[in-house]
Amino acid sequence: MPVIDTFHDEETLTLTIVAEFAAPLERVWEVYADPRQLEQIWGPPTYPATVVDHSLAPGGRVTYYMTSPEGEKFCGLWELTAVDRPTRLEFRDYFADEDFAVVESMPGSSCVYRFEATETGTRATYESVFDSVEGLRTVLEMGVIEGSTGAINQIDGLLARSGTANRANSQPSELA
Length: 176
What we know:
The chain is built from 5 helices and 8 strands; from the N terminus they run ββααββββββααα. It is α+β, with helices and mostly antiparallel strands. Helix 1 (25-33) crosses helix 2 (35-41).
């Protein structure tokens, strides 16, 4: 499984998840840069995501909803603050209503996703900083660690289906 560590810290209001993938840095980045690939991994396995808008640039937005097994829709949005392809993605993450307006009564967070090449592929560090300890506790009680771990662990399957897993260090073949 890609997720190798999860931890939260109420003093710094952070939730951090670390994962490793047997795929090149650029390939892992593409999972987030392509809305159709993002849909395949954003929600937990039983809550598939549908990406509605996808502007992965500073000032852009990503809007999506996840559908529960019972058919309920849970909407969310990212407001992008910084993008440094293929190593860093920063955004505000919010719960949203069906019109993709921020739900003020739910916790928001500032997220930084970092991707770095390793000898075996890519290491991803997903860090969320919440606005309050209550907000962090709320998402923990909602099962964010289990849901996020389940979602991130789907990336290996997507990479395997696209034939890029286990080719992290492969070199292009020389033309004869």
